[in-house]
Design goal:
It is a single chain. The chain has 568 residues and is of the alpha+beta class. The chain has three domains: 224 residues, 2-Layer Sandwich (BirA Bifunctional Protein, domain 2); 129 residues, YbaK/aminoacyl-tRNA synthetase-associated domain (YbaK protein, Alpha-Beta Complex), CATH 3.90.960.10; 98 residues, Rossmann fold, CATH 3.40.50. The protein contains 15 helices and 33 strands. The strands form nine sheets. Strands 3, 7, 8, 9, 10, 11, 12, 23 and 26 form a nine-stranded mixed sheet that branches. Strand 29, helix 12 and strand 30 form a beta-alpha-beta unit. Helix 1 crosses helix 11 and helix 2 crosses helix 11. The radius of gyration is 29 Å and the shape is globular. 44% of the residues are buried. It binds adenosine-5'-triphosphate and magnesium ion.
């Protein structure tokens, strides 16, 4: 591509609205332009990188026997009602109507559509197992679109779905696809880690996320030296209990005027937050429940939803809380709470003499003892584990780091096939629901994650495997005919040799061109200048390392090919 004819609008300055390195660099290098909140245009460089990642994904999915299909963006609401997700998915689901007021979703994920295909087309156990996938635009009306294409409202995803007779077959495909993911992210030169994950709104029994390590990541990952790794919302850990050698006192009412938060109450009463128990009312699939953790800890809503077997957990709105407790928000407690389940974290069980909300305005209760002063329906592990807690497997201290979730795999079981009545005839002549897996990979988010890990102060340092172009030819001055003649020839010869080449043939100053070359970050820059030509050489410079090789003009093409072979 000749730069003089290309749409590569670079910017010297960081755009003010961009917070992360990848977002800034994608804008500055002219890869993307924002159309509106969470919606982006891909300009030529961005489009080429996206296609490169897409192709790696396609090759590795095909290599483990998956078949590519393409499903529509427009998904009739009837299918989503069959699984109940029309109601459960909430505001992230983009809903539209046709001219006859028929409702559709703009697909955020395609379990319903693929299950519909399979229930209509697949009859026999003999056709199982198989996996289909697509690479397609997804729509999610995200609450907070941000970081450019990392969290956008329209994005490119690879989503795969597998169908099986039994769990062993699902396990095998799940492993194959996780191995394919490992190869994909290795080919993209990413430093990443698979971690155990919560299943969330998609459901199922078992899930892994692939996390690209990055301080700008929105996910917190808990890791242990023994190899254990999980997202924080899913991680299991041992939370050290405070010493409780006190004799239990008698429950007492205390006035706590306007003291609503844990910090306010603990300061007002002069006690450690760990001696409070906080009570949070949630709605689990619409049914209110009370969840209890120690005052110095947070609840993992993912663990709570797993403990309750609920699809959707949301904090209850204030009017529900007031109706249940008879008190405004901030004074909720478990004592005398009637008619709803009380789920407490295991760490609450041994506590004595704790402070809880009094279910009355400006009132708390002290010297409360779980089990004696209030009933707990069930104790579960619902605490959000953090750095410094101990590993549930080996007891060592847990560490944490941040990551960008680039893909997630789920063992769905029969969640979708059962609700949509998708069955096959088994060997014994009995109709059985398909056992399913699903596997999503964010293609556009992966491009951003690559830049997040491959950059320096001057710009992007693309890995060769996904770079928009492998080589940039830079002519120092377009005024020198000797230089432009050689550059034209090199450009043609390299393209003929199958190399993607960007040719900076703009009539700009050398300074501007060098700065732009660093910013757009092609792996190898070949500089053609009058001074070099005098000694019969062109200069090849590796963007990432700065390593310079002088190549004799006559051997330039071969020399460039040799250097490219050494680049990741
Ligand atoms: P997140 O927790 O980041 O919202 P998710 O769990 O909703 O992600 P999945 O439903 O598992 O994501 O989707 C599969 C993949 O699609 C994710 O791993 C991610 O790479 C990508 N993805 C999801 N939401 C977005 C988005 N809003 N913008 C870009 N990529 C996304
Ligand atoms: Mg999401």
């Amino acid at each position: 591509m000749r730069w003089s004819k290309a749409l590569i609008p670079t910017h010297k300055e960081d755009p003010s609205a961009a917070e992360t390195t990848s977002h800034k660099l994608m804008l500055r290098s002219g890869c993307i332009r924002k159309l509106t909140s969470g919606v982006y245009n891909y300009l030529p460089l961005g489009r080429r990188a996206l296609l490169k990642v897409e192709q790696i994904v396609r090759e590795e999915m095909d290599a483990v026997g998956c078949q590519e299909i393409l499903m529509p963006v427009l998904c009739p609401s009837e299918l989503w009602r069959e699984t109940g997700r029309w109601d459960v998915y909430g505001k992230e689901l983009w809903r539209v109507r046709d001219r006859n007021s028929r409702e559709f979703a703009l697909g955020p994920t395609h379990e319903e559509v693929v299950t519909d295909i399979v229930r209509n087309e697949v009859r026999s156990y003999r056709e199982l197992p198989f996996t289909v996938y697509q690479i397609q635009t997804k729509f999610r009306d995200e609450l907070r679109p941000r970081f450019g294409v990392v969290r956008s409202r329209e994005f490119l995803m690879k989503d795969a779905y597998s169908f099986h007779r039994d769990d062993e077959s699902l396990d095998e495909t799940y492993r194959d696809i996780c191995d394919a993911y490992t190869r994909i992210f290795e080919r993209c030169s990413l430093t990443f880690r698979p971690v155990e994950a919560a299943t969330g709104a998609i459901g199922g029994s078992h899930s892994h996320e692939f996390m690209v390590l990055s301080d700008t990541g929105e996910s917190e990952i808990i890791v242990c030296e023994c190899g254990y790794a999980a997202t924080d919302e899913r991680a299991e850990g041992a939370v050290d209990p405070p010493p409780c050698d006190e004799a239990p006192g008698e429950m007492e009412r205390v006035e706590t005027p306007e003291m609503r938060t844990i910090e306010q109450v603990s300061e007002f009463l002069g006690i450690d937050p760990g001696k409070l128990v906080k009570t949070i009312i949630y709605e689990a699939d619409g049914r209110p429940v009370a969840a209890l953790v120690r005052g110095d800890r947070e609840i993992s809503e993912a663990k709570l939803s797993m403990a309750l077997g609920a699809d959707l957990i949301v904090p209850a709105p204030p009017d529900v809380i007031e109706k249940l407790t008879g008190a405004p928000v901030g004074f909720t407690g478990p004592v005398g709470l009637e008619g709803i389940d009380v789920i407490a974290d295991h760490t609450v069980e041994p506590l004595v003499n704790v402070v809880v909300g009094g279910n009355a305005q400006d009132v708390h209760l002290k010297n409360v003892k779980p089990g004696r002063d209030f009933k707990v329906t069930a104790f579960h592990d619902i605490v959000l584990v953090r750095k410094g807690d101990r590993c549930a497997r080996c007891g060592a201290e847990l560490d944490s780091f941040r990551g960008i979730e680039v893909s997630q795999a789920f063992k769905l079981g029969t969640k979708y096939s059962s609700s949509m009545n998708a069955t096959y005839l088994d060997e014994d002549g009995v109709a059985k629901p398909f056992i399913m897996g699903c596997y999503g990979l964010g293609v556009s988010r992966t491009v951003a994650a690559i830049i997040e890990q491959h950059n320096d102060k001057d710009g992007i340092t693309w890995p060769l495997s996904v770079a928009p172009f492998a080589v940039e030819i830079l002519v120092v001055s377009m005024k020198s005919e000797e230089c432009t003649t050689l550059a034209d020839r090199l450009y043609t010869d390299l393209k003929a040799a199958g190399v993607d080449v960007l040719y900076d043939d703009r009539d700009d100053s050398a300074g501007v061109k060098f700065k732009d070359a660093d910013l757009v970050g092609m792996p190898l820059r070949v500089t053609i200048g009058a001074r070099g030509l005098k000694s019969g050489v062109v200069e090849a410079r590796v963007r990432k390392t700065g390593e310079v090789t002088e190549l004799p003009v006559d051997d330039a093409v071969q020399g460039i090919l040799r250097i490219l072979e050494t680049l990741p």
